[in-house]
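Example record

The entry below shows one chain as it appears in the dataset: sequence first, then structure tokens.
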Amino acid sequence: MRLLACARPDLVARWDVLSDTDASPKSPRRRRGGATVDDVARHAGVSPMTVSRVVNGMANVRAETRERVAAVIAALDYAPNLAARLLASAGDIRLGLLYANPSAAYLSAFLLGGLEHATAINAQLLVVPCADADDIAQAAARLARAGVDGVILPAPLCDNVDVQALVADAALPAVAVASGAPLASMAAVGIDDQAAAREMTAHLVGQGHRRIGFIAGNPDQTASARRFAGYREALAAAGIALDDTLVAPGLFSYRSGALAAETLLAQPERPSAIFASNDDMAAACVAVAHRMGLDVPRDLSVVGFDDTALAIEIWPELTTIRQPIADLARTAIDLLVALIRDRRAGRAGRADAVPEHRILPFTLIRRGSDGNFR
């Protein structure tokens, strides 16, 4: 399934669901007999006007409502009848976005930020999921058939060598999002993962914690290594020796976080704090701690990374690193549009046309899941 956001300031933005054979921008197929705006509103428990506001990327909708409506839209394959007609008359810049992220909360924030910004700048955003490695080539081929002008690659696909090779072979402008080591040939946007993890670890040290567990991210993502490096640096700065038994592997998924927490908390001398490399795994840590009869944060401090909606949906709410996920999506679109316009103006390939690598600020957000070690 692929979601296509057609964006025009003077028209209602729409999402269209097209089959693989309908990838051409000249011959979109209209869905017949599918879900209506009233169906979406009923399943999401909101008004049809709220659904319209979400689809249009309007700001006056609460984050949790926006995510619920987006989930129902995807589940029902909602596509207004006007979508195909609007597709043909939308802006002249077509952007492809490939994604394969295990964190639904991260993905939701990223997609909504991207769709809103595409609407604002009159661009089309073609969203294509990659379920597994075998799907990557097929997804890239669908983007090529759709005639996209450039590609946005959020983590983990931005670090996938097969995806990088396909983009290079297609000679498409591309932007890597949240890569710990983006290619010089691609534009990129992210945060300083290493500095962020160093600051969070130092925060825990400052609360008196000495046995600080760490749940690593997916080893296939370069940002994972940088977050571990920041953790290691902060320990060294505090004179705390790295204890390999306090480091557990993770995959950025809730399930992997639960398994890692069970391993860390089963030790004879368990850690007094756990720093998980994303909020999904941190939330799993809190759940495991509660199941074991531990109070968070009195018995165990837990902190995360990303500041997704999940961080404030559990109890206690997570202390975490705020990664500006929606801003990453918006910035990626701006960088990609600039590359496309440079290419159209004949500036691509010049010595001064080096793809930009932009770093956005992060913030340590203190909530209720961490405390002083007693």
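Notes for this example: The chain has two domains: 2-31+79-191+324-359, 193-322. Confidence is low (pLDDT under 50) at residues 1-33, 81-90.
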